[in-house]
Amino acid sequence: MNLENLRQKAYEDLKKASSMEELEEVRLKYLGRKQGELTAFLRSFKDMSEDEKREYGPIAQRLRNDLEQEIDEREELLKKQEIGTIDLSIPGVKIESGRIHILSKVYNDVCDIFHSMNFSVAEGPELEEEKYNFDALNIPANHPAREMWDTFWVKNDKNTEGRVMRTHTSPVQVRYMLEHKPPFQMICPGRAYRYEASDATHETDFNQIEGLMIGKDISLANFKFVIEEFFRQFFKDDKIEVKFRASYFPFVEPGVEVDVKIWGKWLEIGGAGMVHPYVLKQGGIDPAKWQGFAFGFGMERLAIIKYGVPDIRLFKSGDERFNKQF
Ligand code: PHE
Questions:
Q1: Alpha helices of 151-291 — where are they, by DSSP H?
Q2: In the chain, what are the domains?
Q3: What φ, ψ does residue 27 adopt, rounded to 5°?
Q4: Is 168 a catalytic residue?
Q5: pLDDT at residue 159 tops 70
Q6: Nearest Cα to 124, choosing from 185, 173, 178?
Q7: Which long-range contacts (CB under 8 A, 24 or more apart) does 191-199 make?
C-alpha cells in the first residue's frame, strides 16, 4: 500500500465533497471502522515486520491525524456555507397566539364595571340545594313557577338529597345574605342550567349575572341608576335608556322585566325587582329594617347584543374562527 497515493486520493475526495453527506462518505471511505482504507492499513500492522512497523507507523498515524483535522475543518466550512444559503429575510411561520374567550371578556368587563361601583363579586355552587334554588326564594314545591325552572335533578343518595343543577343564580342571594350583614351590594356571575331543547337562543347551560343591593332605603330608583350606569359603560353608549315592564317572579315584589334601548331598539335583558320580604327573612335579614333590589341578566344575551352573535350555541362551539372575530 502506497501511503502517499492514499493521502493524495483522500485529499482529492475531500476537496470534491460539497455537502455534509458527501463529507461523511469520504470519512467512512478512509477512516470508517469497517471499510475505511486507512483503517484497514492500520489494522494490517500486526502482520508486519518490526522494520516495516517502524517505517510506516508514524506516516500512517500522521495521515490519520491530518485527515481527521482536514475533515473537521471542511465540516466547519460547509456548515457556514449552508447557513449562508438560508434566506433570513423570508418571513417565518406565523404562530397564532391564544386569546381570551369572548364570553370570558364579557364576564371580566361586567365584574370590572360593577366593581367600580363598589359591588363585591360573589360565588355559589352550581349543584345547588333545593331549598336555596326554590324554597327560600318563595317557590314552594307545589308552586306553578317551579315549572318555569324545571331542571336537572340529581339522584338522591345520602349526600345529595334534594339537589339540582341551579336554574338561576338567585340562590346566591340567600347564601350571601346569610353570610353578610347589610348594607351591602354584590353581583354573582355564574352558570345556570335548564332542562330544555337548545336552539339559537336557548342552551341547557348558560351564564347569568345576579345582582343584589340591600340597605335602609334602597329602591328601584337606585336600581335604575345603577343599571343605566352599567349599560352605559358596558355598551359604551351614553344615550342608553332603560325601561321597566311589570312582571312576576316569586322572590321579588314588585317584579319587573328590564328593557334597554340600544342603537334605537328596545331589547329585553332580564328580570329584577324589590327583594321579597320572605326572601330577606330566609336570609336572616329583618324586612322591617332593610330593603333592596335584585336582578338577574343573561351573560350570553349581553354578549349577543354587544357583538351581534347570531346563535348562542357558537359560544361553546370550540371553533376558533368564531372567537377570532372579536
Ligand atoms: N332569577 C330570575 C331568572 O332566572 C331573574 C331574576 C333575578 C328576577 C332577580 C328578579 C330578580 O329568570
A1: 171-179, 220-234, 277-282
A2: 3-89 (no CATH), 104-323 (3.30.930.10)
A3: -60, -45
A4: yes
A5: no
A6: 173
A7: 191/126, 192/126, 192/165, 192/166, 192/167, 192/168, 193/126, 193/151, 193/152, 193/165, 193/166, 193/167, 194/149, 194/150, 194/151, 194/167, 195/150, 195/151, 195/152, 198/312, 198/313
The confidence score (pLDDT) of residue 160 equals 59
Average pLDDT of the chain, as a whole number:
91
Choosing from 194, 226, 258, 291, the catalytic residue is 194
Instruction: Give the percent of the chain with pLDDT over 90.
Output: 60
Q: Is 295 in the pocket of ligand 1 (CB under 6 A)?
A: yes
Could you tell me the sign of the dihedral formed by the alpha carbons of 256, 315, 130, 290, in that order? negative
Q: Give me ligand 1 centre to Cα 37, in Å.
A: 90
The pLDDT tens digits of the residues spanning 227-258 come to 999 999 999 988 889 999 999 999 999 999 99
3-state class of 190 per DSSP? strand
Per the annotation, the verdict on 252 as an active-site residue is yes
Is residue 272 within 6 Å of ligand 1 at its C-beta?
A: yes
Q: Cβ(258)–Cβ(295) under 8 Å?
A: yes
| Helix/strand/coil for 148 | helix
